[in-house]
């Protein structure tokens, strides 16, 4: 089955700096890669997703890149703000599997 | 549009007791998933319904867990009897109909925090 690894587990950045979170996956059949943001005590919220026919996708201050050959994808947050502080999860899915396989999460702290 | 709703938000029970969690997906979403996050680890898949049918239950830990989705609307997840290692946050997610090889975004509920004493 699919295995998704996520790094780093914790990340602290100064407000205004950029943050990058990286994930790798094992199943070459996976073709859908969402990112979720989970604030303390709240539900995981989908913030951006990318499909394997695309190499990069942007939405305002967030972007995701995908390298199918190397089987890794990354989340980039620019101009970070304190409200970006949360746990971020990457996930992989698709192919024969409809369920998502999640990474272990990254606790992002944006320092004012 | 109402999002995915889960009940209860928190449940505290003793080892050996039974607990039933409920999930109401977004209206019109055929796909319903149960996931679990144990002790700050990754969110792990439990099972997937398409309408009332179990599509994949490969993530269910053991036969103490029983999920149903009668009528293809809301779903319940029953744990009987509960053990200490069942503690965690149980999430439900739903998505629209998926064409072949085309995952649709999954929308999560707030989760049920289950504590087994």
Q: What labels would you give this structure?
A:
heterodimer, A: 112 residues, mainly beta, 6-stranded mixed β-sheet, 5-stranded antiparallel β-sheet, B: 117 residues, 48% strand, globular
Structural features, described:
The complex is a heterodimer of chains A (about 110) and B (about 120). Chain A is mostly beta strands and about 110 residues long. Chain A is built from no helices and 11 strands. In chain A, strands 2, 4, 5, 9, 10 and 11 form a 6-stranded mixed β-sheet that branches. Chain A has a 5-stranded antiparallel β-sheet with strand order 1-3-8-7-6, with no helix packed on it. In chain A, strand 4 and strand 5 (about 45-50) form a beta hairpin. The mean pLDDT of chain B is about 90. In chain B, strand 4 (about 30-35) and strand 5 form a beta hairpin. Chain B starts with a strand and ends with a strand. Chain B has no helices and 11 strands. Classes of the chains: A mainly beta (about 110), B mainly beta (about 120). The interface between A and B is medium-sized, with 25 and 27 residues.
Q: Which range best describes the helical content of chain B: under 10%, 10-25%, 25-40%, 40-55%, 55-70% or over 70%? A: under 10%
Largest chain-chain contact? A-B, 25 and 27 residues
Tally of helical runs of chain A = 0
Broad structural category of chain B: mainly beta
Tally of alpha and pi helices of chain B: 0
The ordered string of helix (H) and strand (E) elements of chain B is EEEEEEEEEEE
Largest sheet of chain A: 6 strands, mixed
Return residue spans of chain B where pLDDT drops below 50 for at least 5 consecutive residues.
none
Mean pLDDT of chain B, nearest integer? 92
Oligomer: heterodimer
**Broad shape of chain B:** globular
List the topology elements:
The complex is a heterodimer of chains A (112) and B (117).
Chain A: E1 4-7, E2 10-14, E3 19-25, E4 32-38, E5 45-51, E6 56-59, E7 62-67, E8 72-77, E9 86-94, E10 97-102, E11 106-111
Parallel strand pairs in A: 2-11
Antiparallel strand pairs in A: 1-3, 3-8, 4-5, 4-9, 6-7, 7-8, 9-10, 9-11
Chain B: E1 5-7, E2 10-13, E3 19-24, E4 31-37, E5 43-50, E6 53-56, E7 65-68, E8 75-79, E9 88-95, E10 107-108, E11 112-116
Parallel strand pairs in B: 2-11
Antiparallel strand pairs in B: 1-3, 3-8, 4-5, 4-9, 5-6, 7-8, 9-10, 9-11
